[in-house]
Amino acid sequence: MGPAPRCANHPPDRRLMETPHAAIAPPTAAGAIRAGVGGWVYAPWRDNFYPAELPRRQELAHASRHLRAIEVNSTYYGAQKPATYAKWAEATPPGFVFSLKAPRYITESRSLARSGKSVDGFLHGGIEEMGDRLGPLLWQLSPSRKFDAGDLDAFLQALPRMLNGRLLRHVLEVRNPGFLCPAYVELARRHAIPTVFTDSPKFPSLADLTGDFVYARLMRSAEHIATGYDNAALDQWAAHARAWAEGRDIDALPHVLATQPATAPREVFVFFISSAKLRNPAAAMALQERVDRRA
């Protein structure tokens, strides 16, 4: 496809901690592929993804041994306490990471450029307690936020790239069609900020590579399919993930600008979000199995 025409207080069970799922490895280098879901608390996952007898306080420990990453939505509604971030990290195995959705009081503010105090409050509010479990920070803009190059440029310029000596990775999700223009892609590339790719028909979809890692949010799981996506679709997404990890662009996906030549390997995050949420863990595990099989 060518360019778009427009612009808990209880410690986890030690036995669970010492028995990681076979698919889990510590993929921290460029070129690693991580499949995951949004959150880990969802009642229909009981006796589906989670064994019926599993204590609820052990759900995160279980999920993090069957998935490579989890996108945290609760931080979108408000920053958590430092002790909460530390507890989440302690429950998970080496190599696992969380992606945190930045608070909406920042991304929905009238001016992104003037949100620096709120950004600092979030970044210095305890997320460093996650240590090496801290993955990308997702800045999700609402569909009502139009592309304002000056405002966005100032916001991205001010985003800290280090926190207490640790590299911060930011990713931007745009949901207004006005971002489907060369000016946005060029701006994101200047700041080396990846742009979320989504397969959802509700939001703008652009696969233009604008940063040094790839972040996809897949939102078309179907409840009547045990793995959310059928085998052909999972095979195709596994191929796309491998291409991204190898530093290749994908002409078959929608772009604003022409596809780029191959570059250095990239880390890839693929989250199954929303839609038939019941099936998303199975979809993530099926995708991970496919990409690991070819590793």
Please give the alpha-carbon distance between the first and last residues.
27 Å
SSE series = HEHEHHEHHEHEEEHEEHEH
CATH superfamily: Protein of unknown function UPF0759
Share of helix among residues?
25-40%
Question: What name does the CATH topology carry?
Answer: TIM Barrel
Number of domains: 1
Task: Based on the coordinates given, report the CATH architecture.
Answer: Alpha-Beta Barrel
Verbal overview:
The chain has about 300 residues and is α/β, with parallel strands linked by helices. The chain has one domain (about 15-295): Protein of unknown function UPF0759 (TIM Barrel). It is about 30% helix and about 15% strand. The protein has helices spanning about 15, 60-65, 75, 80-90, 105, 115-125, 150-160, 180-190, 230-245, 280-295; strands at about 35-40, 70, 95-100, 135-140, 160-165, 165, 170-175, 195-200, 215-220, 265-270. The longest helix is centred in the last third of the chain and has 15 residues, at about 230-245. The chain is globular and about 55 Å long.
Task: Chart the SSEs and their pairings.
Layout lengths: L13 H4 L15 E6 L20 H5 L5 E4 L1 H4 L4 H9 L6 E5 L2 H4 L8 H8 L10 E7 L8 H10 L3 E2 L2 E2 L2 E4 L8 H9 L6 E2 L14 E6 L12 H15 L21 E6 L7 H14 L2
Parallel strand pairs: 1-2, 1-10, 2-3, 3-4, 4-7, 8-9, 9-10
Antiparallel strand pairs: 5-6
Helix pairs in contact: 9-10
